[in-house]
Amino acid sequence: MNNNELIEVIKSLKKEFVYSTTSKIWCVEINDNELNEAIRKAHDEILPTDWIYDKFFHILDDLSDYDINNLSDIENYRDEIIANLIDVANYERISWLSNVYNSEVYISEALHDRDSNDIFDILADGQYYQLSYIFDCVTELLGLKLSQLKLKN
Predict the structure, then answer these.
(1) Domain around 7
(2) Which residues make Cβ contacts (< 8 Å) with residue 47, sequence separation at least 6?
(3) Distance set, CA 124 to CA 44, 87, 93, 131 (Å)
């Protein structure tokens, strides 16, 4: 596998995402079953939210900006990509808490790992944990797509 194959897989997956500027929602074309399955997994099998669609797309988008040659290279950029996707404004973090249905799971994890009582730091940590899970779903999908490419060749 070469760098171009991995980047082409990422670009083809990005093309499946559609953002409606009028209704402000994300959609995914139904053409790719593996992508739909990865997104469903990223949602923990619960109701879809635009926050997760948005972050899934932006992980793909950010990965396409890096010089990656294989799946293990992706891990070198995990923390940087995730840190850049954590909501900065406190009202966005509160919105995440109220609109992402399973955010309490990640908040519990953040509370367990953090000594701070600052609610906004805890929310940011919760987002980090959820983004890390979404990142795992993306890399798992990329691995599946690359395996399929190898079988075709």
Answers:
(1) 3-152
(2) 101
(3) 19, 7, 7, 10
* The residue type at 4: N
For the chain, what's the residue count?
153
- pLDDT at residue number 153: 63
DSSP string, the chain: --HHHHHHHHHHHHTTEEEETTTTEEEE-TT-HHHHHHHHHHTTTS---HHHHHHHHHHHHHHTTS---SHHHHHTTHHHHHHHHS--SHHHHHHHHHHSTTHHHHHHHHHHH-----HHHHHHHHHHHHHHHHHHHHHHHHHHHHHHHHHH-
pTM, rounded to two decimals: 0.86
**Residue 1 pLDDT exceeds 60:** no
Provide the number of structural domains found in the chain: 1
